[in-house]
Amino acid sequence: MDRKDVLDLDDFSREEIEEVLSTAEAMREVLSRPIRRVPPLRGKTIINLFYEPSTRTRISFELAAKNLSADVVNVSASGSSVEKGESLVDTIRTLQALGADVVVMRHPMAGAPYLVAQHLRGSVINAGDGCHAHPTQALLDLFTIRQKFRRIHGLTVLIVGDILYSRVARSNIWGLTRMGARVILCGPPTLMPDFGTNGHRAGLPPVEVCHDLDRCIERADVVMALRIQRERQDGGLLPSLREYVKLYQINRERMLRARPGALVMHPGPMNEGIEIAPDVARGDQSVIEEQVTNGVAVRMALLYLLAGERAGLAVA
Fold first, then answer.
1. Within a domain: 4
2. Which of 178, 209, 238, 239 has a CA between 20 and 30 Å from the CA of residue 15?
3. The one catalytic residue among 58, 134, 178, 266
4. Active-site annotation holder among 23, 28, 44, 57
5. Is residue 249 part of a domain?
6. 106 included as an active-site residue
C-alpha cells in the first residue's frame, strides 16, 4: 500500500481495502500450512504498545508478526516509564531509537495514534483509540463477511448495541459503506449518536437508524452484536440490563426473522446472555470464532503490506 500508517478506514479507498482482503487470503493459506511461518519481516521489529488491557488484539498482532518472522516486543503502560510520568511522545522517540519499524498501538484517548504517527518514521497501526476507531477489527469483519458471501457489495449489515461508544462500529461504518454494503444501526436511543432525520452525521457516511430490532432484523444478511459496556449503566444510559435483553438481545427467535443464511458476528469480548444468547453465539450461523482466526490473517496482511518484502511471501 502507498501509505505509512493505518489509523482508521475513513481515508481508505475501495481498492486499498480490496488489496488488504486479497493479501489476507494469501495469509490464510500460510496459516493452513504445517509450518506457519514465512520470512517477509525477517529483521523487522514490531512493537505492541498497549495502554489498555487486551487479549485478542494484542495476541493476534503478536502471532501475526511472528508468523512473518519479525522480532516482537510487547510494551504495556503498567511497569513502563509511563508510570514515572514519561510522555507519549518521549516514549515514541525511545522506541524509534531502539529501531521500531512498526508500532501497533492501543490507547484510551481518541487520536493518540495520530499523534504518534507524526513523530515516528516507521508505521503506526491503530489497535483501538478511545471511542474513535478500530480499523483492524473492521477489516477482519469485512474479510469474514466476504469469505462467507463471496461479496460485500449489496449486503445489509445490522449493527446492534452500544453504537455511541463503539470504535468498532465507527470503523465498520466506513469500511462497509466503502465496499458497497448497506448499514443499519440499532440500539437504545441513549446509546445512539444523533444521525438526524436523514441518517447522516457529520464525519460519517449515511446510514439507516432503527430502534425496533424485531423490525429491522428482517432485512439483515449480517447481524453484528456489540458489547454492552456495563459501566454505561452507572451513567443512567440504560434503565436496566433486563430491559436491554428484552429489546435488543440477539437470540434464536430474532435470528429466525433475519434473511436466510444470515450470519452472526461479535467483536468480543462477549457478555453472553446480555447482548447475545449463548446458543446463538455458538450456533450454526455464528462466525465469531472465525473472526478471531481471520484477525491473525488480516493483521499479517497489514504488517506485510506496510513493512514486508513481497518476494518472501511464497517461501515456505
1. no
2. 209
3. 134
4. 57
5. yes
6. yes
